[in-house]
Design brief:
mainly beta
């Protein structure tokens, strides 16, 4: 594959697997392209929550809005231009704030192929 540039408009955003909240993900690069990483965009509606055990190493870049990521060790808040790293096996709750959020993500290996200990669960707000 050659060098590429992507915008959120290039992603086909679909509801995040296993939940019914306003949380969407869309890959622009994944296992279909032959590389080791998945790269994509996410969109969180206002005051949404996603609870999951991270099945892959996940890097999330906040492009718009704010997110809080909580683990048993505490909570971090992140906004535009900030990066959150979530290691494989970590139990997290990702919450959007009143304005929602837009993110870019990179996972290793591909999140769609990873076995899940528990499905994603959106508990909405």
């Amino acid at each position: 594959m050659a060098v590429h540039k992507f915008a959120i408009e290039d992603a086909s955003l679909e509801r995040s697997p296993g939940q019914d909240g306003e949380v969407f993900a869309g890959n622009v690069i994944d296992q279909r392209h032959g590389g080791p990483l998945t790269i994509g965009f996410g969109r969180y509606g206002p005051n949404e929550a996603l609870v999951e055990r991270i099945a892959v190493h996940d890097v999330m870049v906040i492009l718009e809005g704010r997110l809080s990521v909580s683990t048993e060790d505490g909570t971090i808040d992140a906004g535009p231009g900030e990066i959150v790293y979530m290691p494989k096996g970590e139990n997290v709750t990702i919450r959007s704030h009143a304005q929602g959020a837009v993110t870019a993500y990179v996972t290793y290996p591909h999140w769609q192929e990873a076995p899940r200990d528990q499905p994603r669960v959106g508990d909405g707000a």
